Amino acid sequence: QVDVAAMVRLFGYVDVTDTGFIVAVLSIAFNPLFWNVVARWEHKTRALSQVFGSARAACYCLGAVILLLNCVRSHCFTEAMKSQPKLEGWDYHWTYYSGLAISAVGTLFVISSFLALGFTGTFLGDYFGILMEEKVTSFPFNVLDNPMYWGSTAIYLGWSLMHASPAGLLLTAVVAISYTIAVLYEG
């Protein structure tokens, strides 16, 4: 039996009609949609490789765009959190440090994924025909599937807890749902 009263009370703090909140949701949903559509288009047409003169240059440019979009997403996420009320019962040191620890674990997964895959492995090089010698099975891939996605989600969860933000928690759920859909699409 799930007690929905606590969840209703928690999300009573969130104004989902706030422009900043809507922009954050759209930026969260847009990013994985964008990179999956562009990567599949490149795989079918090789258009980006032709425009940039090589698959590697095209992959690096797409990676730079993805990084920029992730910065925009994080900015929108943060601004949406700041514009919404905090949950007073969570604005304590233990919540802050719990969020910091969760963010640290998420950062560990994201950075170690990047180091294991390299730039082209991280930023869809396989769609450009840049293949790795073999599947990466070392840490963090031996701990969980898609560690970059779940590490990123953990970073947002930790950030939300650090700011005692119900809006941040709801946006983190949107991140998790977007990544879940991306994993299904990519698989």
TrEMBL record:
The chain crosses the membrane at residues 12-35, 55-73, 94-119, 167-185. GO terms for cellular component: endoplasmic reticulum membrane. GO terms for molecular function: phosphatidyl-N-methylethanolamine N-methyltransferase activity; phosphatidylethanolamine N-methyltransferase activity. Keywords: Endoplasmic reticulum, Lipid biosynthesis, Lipid metabolism, Membrane, Methyltransferase, Mitochondrion, Phospholipid biosynthesis, Phospholipid metabolism, S-adenosyl-L-methionine, Transferase, Transmembrane, Transmembrane helix. It is found in: Endoplasmic reticulum membrane. Pathway: Phospholipid metabolism; phosphatidylcholine biosynthesis; Lipid metabolism. It holds the Pfam family PEMT. The keyword ATP-binding does not apply. Its EC number is 2.1.1.17, 2.1.1.71. Its main location: endoplasmic reticulum. It catalyses: 1,2-di-(9Z-octadecenoyl)-sn-glycero-3-phosphoethanolamine + S-adenosyl-L-methionine = 1,2-di-(9Z-octadecenoyl)-sn-glycero-3-phospho-N-methylethanolamine + S-adenosyl-L-homocysteine + H(+); 1,2-di-(9Z-octadecenoyl)-sn-glycero-3-phospho-N-methylethanolamine + S-adenosyl-L-methionine = 1,2-di-(9Z-octadecenoyl)-sn-glycero-3-phospho-N,N-dimethylethanolamine + S-adenosyl-L-homocysteine + H(+); 1,2-di-(9Z-octadecenoyl)-sn-glycero-3-phospho-N,N-dimethylethanolamine + S-adenosyl-L-methionine = 1,2-di-(9Z-octadecenoyl)-sn-glycero-3-phosphocholine + S-adenosyl-L-homocysteine + H(+); 1-hexadecanoyl-2-(4Z,7Z,10Z,13Z,16Z,19Z-docosahexaenoyl)-sn-glycero-3-phospho-N-methylethanolamine + S-adenosyl-L-methionine = 1-hexadecanoyl-2-(4Z,7Z,10Z,13Z,16Z,19Z-docosahexaenoyl)-sn-glycero-3-phospho-N,N-dimethylethanolamine + S-adenosyl-L-homocysteine + H(+). One of its GO terms (biological process) is phosphatidylcholine biosynthetic process. It is a multi-pass membrane protein. It is an enzyme of class 2 (transferase). HAMAP family: PLMT. This is Phosphatidylethanolamine N-methyltransferase.
